[in-house]
Amino acid sequence: MSPAATTNLGYTPPDGGWGWAVVFGAFISIGFSYAFPKSLTIYFKEIQMYFSVSYSEIAWVSSIMLAAMYAGGPVSSILVNRYGCRTVVIIGGLMVGASMVAASFGTTIIHLYLLVGVIGGFGLSFNLQPSLTIIGKYFQVKRPIANGLAMAGSPVFLSTLAPLNQFLFDNFGWRGAFMILGAIVMNCCVAGALMRPVNMKTVQKHPVTASKGTTAKKAGSTENNANPEAGDLLTETEQKIGGCADKLMDLSLFKHRGFIIYLIGNVVMFFGFFAPVVFLPSYAKGIGIDNYQAAFLLSIFAFVDMFARPGTGLIANTKWIRPRIQYFFSFSVAYNGVCHLLCPFLAVYLGYAGLVVYAVFFGVAFGMVCALLFEVLMDLVGAQRFSSAVGLVTILECGPVLLGPPISVFTSQEERVGWGRHGNATLRLYLLSSRPCTNTTVRHSEDGWNIYHGFSEFLCHVVILPTHREAVATGMSRSVYPSCIQGFDHNTIYDGILLPVV
Amino acid sequence: MSKWNCFYKRIKHEKQTLNITLSMVKLLHLGWCICTPSHYKDIGDSLVEKVEILKPIDLELACTWTGNPNKLPNITGYWRKDGSEITNSRLTVQLENEQYNLKRVFRITGDTLGNYSCIFSDTDEAKIDFNKKDKPIVAYVGDSVAMACKTKLPPNTWLWYRANGTEQELINATTDPLRYKISVDGNTTKLTVMNLTAEDSGVYVCSAIYNIKASVSRVEVRVITFMEPLKPFIAIVAEVIILVLLILLYERWSSQRSSHSPTGNNIHTALTREGNNGMDENTTTRQRKI
């Protein structure tokens, strides 16, 4: 694909050795970042009763936390560019820990919004972003595997945090649990300690070949890389590349065509990406499956996801796929869409077994997309600018991630089907496939992809929805679901967990 | 865990028979059928099926109850419509194949739509009302705790008791407004106990008074001090600090070891905790080739 973007690091990344410890650190950080907001929902019923507020007011805590986590992306990028990954992760871990401990003493819901939501969310963003960046610093050849392994943190931590939270809640109530969770989250500082900046002395100098074409914003740097053939004499700016410190914020990314397309595609995709995760249990219950089995579907999904991510990393690293990793990513998004399109068929004709099959395939699809999500971005913009890129991407994804499921609920209640969101997935592919290709001979295959995607979308909206409207609408629309099972409040364990986060 | 199934069969009034089982309802329906086990289990699960009737029909409702631990050979079963018992519907139900079956044909017309429930009991039944809490609620000294009870139909009154062994002592919110607060909202009630002390641990009972009988549900409250979560908290923080120090020490040790190697220039010294800010830039600028 675009090899040039990836080699202007100025050095050859170690691709192993301490890098695996860094991957483990990133695994922990990413795991906490994604799983933590979701797992807090277990406490909501109790807190809701304690503060005498409505459920939507309490759900704001998670939403604010998520929003802060995504909005903190650019701030995080700037700090990483200035101070390096390790510092930012440690600060992030301390922030979340301190905010949770403070929240355990909170007396109003506003305290929770501010402490858990805003400060906690920013702390998590300071964890997420540097973890992704440092993988790009340490790995080049084995980067997809490293990414896949690190992203596997999310399902692993979610499956551990959920029962752990339940245990803490049963034994200590919500206040004590928050305090102990604050301590647990401080393990992110351990992850940060692992993120040693790359030792540039021991890696070989690599002449800068590609021009970044951007001006350095750091005070004191004089030369930019407009003259790469000047060769071995690396400048001050380039010397800083070894750590995570780069320019403060690289807004020239907006001129990068691949980046813009990736961004637009992501924004569109995220509207629909998480809807199935959020609605799967309700759908299952709507067609008559009982609570525990519906919740079990999610366990299956998370379990498969756990293995799909490193597996995808391994596959993406092979010499056939690595050069074409963008297409592999497009394929996985399309596969996602197709999976969801088939779900109503499976559910109606095969019942619970069909849904189990769907959960397995969906787990694979979800894992594939998540594992490749940042790898593809790294591939597009290069490890140099990745830190700024991921900051910009997260803040722009904030909107669809938060709005997606409510919009799906809204549209499904109007009898338009929420599964149609997967048309968005295929739409995304449509955009991705017109990405810049250094290799012009693949242009004809782009047309092929476009046709395929357009067709999938057509299929979705025109064929499937009308015929399965009822089954799907019954499933999707919560108002139809007979909710007379009193005492089974723990269905919310899974309903609540499924907030729209990767 | 008791299980029950409801089977519906439309009778040939319309020249077609539809078997709809509980697990796969494919059409949208109107009206309700409730199957409730009675006070054999003090906590039960109810399943409600909506059944839509398009024209006046004769509808046969059947309830099956399995898993009764007492396994009495005969129990009484009867039907209720909209919460009140249908006259002359009481039947003795035999235990057959480990289950009790109760069936009745109802003529459903526009006037007779409503909620139909089948009840199995051996004595006067009580309506189940619960906010299922097998596990105690944990609360802290000096803090407050709130517990709620909920039923399907609003009772005449709600009463809260504090249970001490076998006796129950009524909680009166008016005499003690600083400690107790009771709020009632239709079919839900909430008791808030403030300024908790260790003696407030115990079982609290909410009682819904109906015309027939009162039905109760219990909730256990456990009051602990802040010391309890503090111990695991300190343990975990200590573990974090130890690990971080170990990692940084290892780093310093391994970089010192390689600084004794012939490559000369001082590299990348180990990052100490204080020196984190800006340390990256320092070490990278220091190690230039040549």
UniProtKB/TrEMBL annotation, chain A:
- Which GO CC terms are listed, alphabetically? basolateral plasma membrane
Stretches the record annotates as Disordered:
209-232
| TM ranges | 18-37, 49-71, 91-124, 145-164, 176-195, 259-280, 292-308, 328-349, 355-377
| Major facilitator superfamily (MFS) profile domain span | 19-502
Q: Give the way it sits in the membrane.
A: Multi-pass membrane protein
Q: Which reaction(s) does its UniProt entry say it catalyses?
A: 4-methyl-2-oxopentanoate(out) + H(+)(out) = 4-methyl-2-oxopentanoate(in) + H(+)(in); 3-methyl-2-oxobutanoate(out) + H(+)(out) = 3-methyl-2-oxobutanoate(in) + H(+)(in)
InterPro entries, per this entry?
MFS, MFS_dom, MFS_trans_sf, Proton-linked_MCT
A GO molecular function term, named singly, is: symporter activity
Keywords, in A-Z order: Cell membrane, Membrane, Symport, Transmembrane, Transmembrane helix, Transport
Write out the coiled-coil annotation as residue ranges. none
Which cellular compartments is it found in? Answer: Basolateral cell membrane
Record's family? Belongs to the major facilitator superfamily. Monocarboxylate porter (TC 2.A.1.13) family.
Name of the protein this chain belongs to: Major facilitator superfamily (MFS) profile domain-containing protein
Organism source for this protein? Oncorhynchus mykiss
Q: What is the lineage of its organism?
A: Eukaryota, Metazoa, Chordata, Craniata, Vertebrata
Automatic annotation (TrEMBL), chain B:
Highest taxon of source: Eukaryota
Single GO term (MF)? cell-cell adhesion mediator activity
One GO cellular-component annotation of the UniProt record comes to: axon
InterPro entries for this protein: Ig-like_dom, Ig-like_dom_sf, Ig-like_fold, Ig_sub, Ig_V-set
- Please state every residue range assigned to the domain named Ig-like: 37-129, 142-217
SUPFAM superfamilies, alphabetically? Immunoglobulin
Q: Does the keyword Transmembrane helix apply?
A: yes
Segments of skewed composition (Polar residues): 256-269, 279-290
Which residue spans traverse the membrane?
232-250
Region called Disordered, residue ranges = 256-290
PROSITE patterns to which the protein is assigned, alphabetical: IG_LIKE (PS50835)
Q: Which UniProt keywords apply?
A: Immunoglobulin domain, Membrane, Transmembrane, Transmembrane helix
Q: Which GO terms describe its biological process?
A: axon guidance; dendrite self-avoidance; homophilic cell adhesion via plasma membrane adhesion molecules
The protein's name is Ig-like domain-containing protein
Q: What is the lineage of its organism?
A: Eukaryota, Metazoa, Chordata, Craniata, Vertebrata
